[in-house]
Amino acid sequence: MRRLAILLLPWLPGVFAAPRTSTTYLVYIGTHALGTGSPGIFAYRFAPASGEVRSIGLVKQMANPFFLAVDPGRKYLYAGTIIDGRTPDSVTSFAIDRSNGALRLLNSVSSRGTSACYLVADHTGKMLMVADYADGKVAAFSLHRDGRIGETGGLVQHHGSSVNPERQSSSHPHAVVLSPDNRFAFVPDLGLDQIRIYRIDPVNARLTENDPPFAKVNPGSGPRHMAFAPDGKFAYVVNELQSTVTVFAYDAARGSLAAQQTVSTLPPGYEGKNTAAEIEIDEAGLFVYASNRGHDSIVVFSIDQTTGMITPVAYVPSGGREPWSFKIDPTGGYLLAANKETHNVVIFRLDPKTGLPKPTGKSIDVPSPVCIQFVPAL
User: Fold this and answer.
1) Which of 32-41, 98-107, 135-144, 201-210 has the lowest mean pLDDT?
2) Does the 2-376 domain belong in CATH 2.130.10.10?
């Protein structure tokens, strides 16, 4: 009965104890507006001790920086662009000035496709991997010590389709997620209903198909993003098309995933249109969060610490329309939700005991936000 009583939380500001930290962070927000283009990358200064956020402004003007990634040393920012899904796009490297948030252009290279929808640097900072949604490719680039993007070391092409004729007529890689030990890369492919698995070679920037080469989700699910539990025993995949989360047991030795459970991201009885988008796990490994575009909410699941399975505990309004993504801050005390259609990023405080996001009453006005990254400020 307690779980049912908090299934849908109202949009009411609330107060929890602020995280005790003197560190401030730079918050970089990537933007994307199909058809009209977006102005570029915006930056803000965020103080977790108070929850205050201050605008730095537009720090880099560029067309549709759809996804942002940072290197392990938090010195460099990488941006992938999507113009229209047909025009060749690029991946660009910037040096971060952590004193004021400024970005200095280092170099830009072809992404080897037309839809660079996800980027990640490996844990050694030697390799950058890019998922290309429209072309069904995953590219791996070498990274120089000075942050510049080097040559393409590996390029893999996915083939196939699944049961949804409108969205799954071909391959659509939507993310590249690294295993905790930096040995494997996992690629949720929305078009194939598979999570493709690769062994990575950061020194040579290469990808090699794993054995087993993939894990499956239910037909028509459309896997989008993925997150590992802090202990590395389980992985969680958010499925865009069927608005679900699939729980996998993870075998770190083999790099394999075994499906355990699939749960809806939507409350019982909801019949409107929806696509699920982002997924994250809190630093304690107690809660899984996922976003709903349509229902416009952040769903909170509790995690069984023995089985890894999840139970929904709340559906919290995102404070806008189309929460394309969200990000938990490095202190674990806040969640920032990027609502693309209402051009705002809403700041929630996370209750460490219940895991529930509570609106602070603070938000950021930014055009078409789709990606958030934190970098410690100086």
Assistant:
1) 32-41
2) yes
For residue 201, give both structure tokens. Answer: 């070679």
277 vs 275: CA distance, rounded Å: 6
Provide DSSP, 296-350: TEEEEEEE-TTT--EEEEEEEE-SSS-EEEEEE-TTSSEEEEEETTTTEEEEEEE
Specify whether the CB–CB gap between 36 and 319 falls below 8 A: no
What is the rounded CA–CA span in Å between residue 369 and residue 50? 23
pLDDT exceeds 90 at position 37: no
User: Taking Cα atoms as reference points, which of 14, 207, 76, 277 lies closest to residue 198?
Assistant: 207
CA 3 to each of CA 9, 159, 291, 358: distance values in angstroms, whole numbers, following the listed order: 12, 42, 19, 17
Tokens coding 203: 């020194």
Whole-prediction pTM value? 0.94
Please report, for the chain, the start and end positions of each structural domain, with discontinuous segments joined by +: 2-376
DSSP label at 3? H
User: If you average pLDDT over residues 207-228, what whole number do you get?
Assistant: 98
d(CA 291, CA 238): 9
